[in-house]
Specification:
Elements (H helix, E strand, L loop, with lengths): L8 E6 L22 E7 L3 E2 L5 E2 L8 E4 L5 E5 L2 E7 L3 E5 L1
Antiparallel strand pairs: 1-2, 1-7, 2-5, 3-4, 5-8, 6-7
C-alpha cells in the first residue's frame, strides 16, 4: 500500500532517535527528545490559490527536512511509522 497526500500535505519518515548521549549514557524512552529531521517520502500536488491556480510545494521526495515539533498526524503503514504534515509545518530543507 502507498500513501498519496492531498493538497499541500507531505508524508515524512522521521530520523532515528539517538539512544545514547555523547558521553555514553543510555537514554530511557521518556528522556529521548523527539526528532525534528525527517525524510520526505511523498508530496501532494500543492495548494490552490484563490484564482484556482495550483501552487506547487517547495520540497521533493528524498529531501531531508526539519519539521515543527509535535506537528502532523502519525500513522503506521506496513510496520513503518510516518507523519503527514502540512507544508507550512516544514521549517527548512537540510542540505
Amino acid at each position: 500500500m502507498t500513501l498519496k497526500p492531498l493538497q499541500d500535505r507531505v508524508v515524512v519518515k522521521m530520523a532515528e532517535v539517538e539512544e545514547t548521549t555523547k558521553s555514553g549514557i543510555i537514554l530511557a524512552g521518556s528522556a529521548k527528545e523527539k526528532p525534528q529531521i525527517a525524510e520526505v517520502v511523498a508530496v501532494g500536488p500543492g495548494a490552490r490559490a484563490e484564482d484556482g491556480t495550483l501552487l506547487p510545494l517547495d520540497v521533493a521526495v528524498g529531501q531531508k527536512v526539519i519539521t515543527s515539533k509535535y506537528s502532523g498526524t502519525e500513522i503506521k503503514l506496513d510496520g513503518t511509522e510516518y507523519i503527514i504534515v502540512k507544508s507550512s509545518d516544514i521549517l527548512a530543507i537540510v542540505e
